[in-house]
Amino acid sequence: MQLYRNYFYVVTCFIVVTCYVANASNVLDVSGKTFSRGTDRGLAYAKFKAHKFSYLNITSIASDYVMKGSECGLACVNIPSCFSLNLATLQDVIGKMLCELLPSDMYNNSDKFVASQSHHHFSIMNDGTCAAQYEKNSYVCVCGKGYTGKHCKIDIDECAEDSHSCDFKAHCINTVGSYLCTSLTASSILSGRDLDNYLGVLRSYLSPVLMNSSRSVFVRCWQAKTDGWAAATFHKNCDGKGPTVTLILVNSYIFGGYTNVSWNATGNQCRYVPADKAFIFSLNNSRDAPVKLYQYGDSTPAMYDCFRYGPSFGGGDIRVTSDAVNKSDSYTHCGHTYTAPPGYSRHANCPFFAGSYRFSPTDIEVFYEQLI
Length: 372
Known about the structure:
Keywords: Disulfide bond, EGF-like domain. There is one protein chain. The chain contains 6 helices and 28 strands. It is mostly beta strands and 372 residues long. The chain has 3 domains: 7-127, Hepatocyte Growth Factor (3-Layer(bba) Sandwich), CATH 3.50.4; 129-157, no CATH class; 171-371, no CATH class. Strand 14 (171-175) and strand 15 form a beta hairpin. The chain is elongated. It starts with 6 loop residues before the first strand and ends with a strand.
C-alpha cells in the first residue's frame, strides 16, 4: 500500500484451508457494502478512505508500530471491533509508524475529529455522506447531488425523470452525476428579453457554419456572472471545446462572436489565431438593427487567444479583459478584422456594439457546439 493514496483495500486470508485471492473489484462485490468489513470464502476485507492530516481523538483499542500502512489496515480487518485507524505521517528512527486501531469512526465522533500534521485518519469510503449503524450491521447515506441508491453508486438520469431545469425548447443530455442543457435557449442573457426574436436571428447567423444542422446543439461552458469573471476561469472551462459562440451583455446591448476554432490559451501565451468561419454580430445595438459582420480575408487574426483575456475577436474588434465587470478597459474597435458596422469607418472607436467605445459587461456567456 502507498501511504498517501486517497484510499486502499485490505484483503487477508484467515482460513488456511481454501484461501482465495481477490482483486479490488471483487472485494467490492463480496462485501456488498462500501463501508463495512466482512468474510467470504476465507477472505476478510475492508475498504478504507484516507483523510489526510487528520486525527480521530478517541481511545484506541490497540496500538503498535508498523513498517507499512497496510500492516495497520490488516490489523484492523482482523479485529471485529476496529472500525477506523490513525496512522502516523512520519517514520521513527528505525523506520516504523505508529498505528492506532479505533472502535468507532469520524461519523459517530465528529466533535473529536481534528486536524493533525502528525497523522492521517483512515475511515469508511463512500460517495455520499454516511453514518454507520453498528448495532444493525448497516449504515445510512445521504447521497450527493445526482446520485441515489444504498451505496450512492446509482446515477440519477435527470433527463428521463424530468427533474432537470432545462428550458422546454432545450435538449437534455444526462451525464454522470449531473446533466447538460444543450440549447441556446438556456442563455441567461437572451432569457427575459425578446428571446424568440434574438434566437431566430442568431440561428440564422449560425446555420451556415454548423458541424451538422440536424445534430448540432450548444452547451454553455462559461457564464461570467455565475462562474466568475477571471479570464483563467473562461479558459479552464472552454478551452479545447471546439466551435463556440459568445454572447456579451452590456446593459441592454447584446453582441458577440462565433469561431470554428477552439480557444486554447496554453501557458502564458497570447496569440492571434485564424479561423476561416469566424464572424462577429450584434443582436441589440445603438441603431436597433441586428447585423452579422464577416472577415475581410480568410487569413486574418479572427481570434485573440490570450490567458489574460476573455473571449476576444479580431485584431481589436472586440476585446474582453479579465475581471471585466470591475473595470472599463474592455472595448470595441470597428473594422480591424471584421467589416465595420453600417455607418462606421474602419479602425475607429466603435460605440455601435456596447453604447460606448469602452465598456464594462453586465454578463458574458460562451457556448460550445456538440453533436448529439
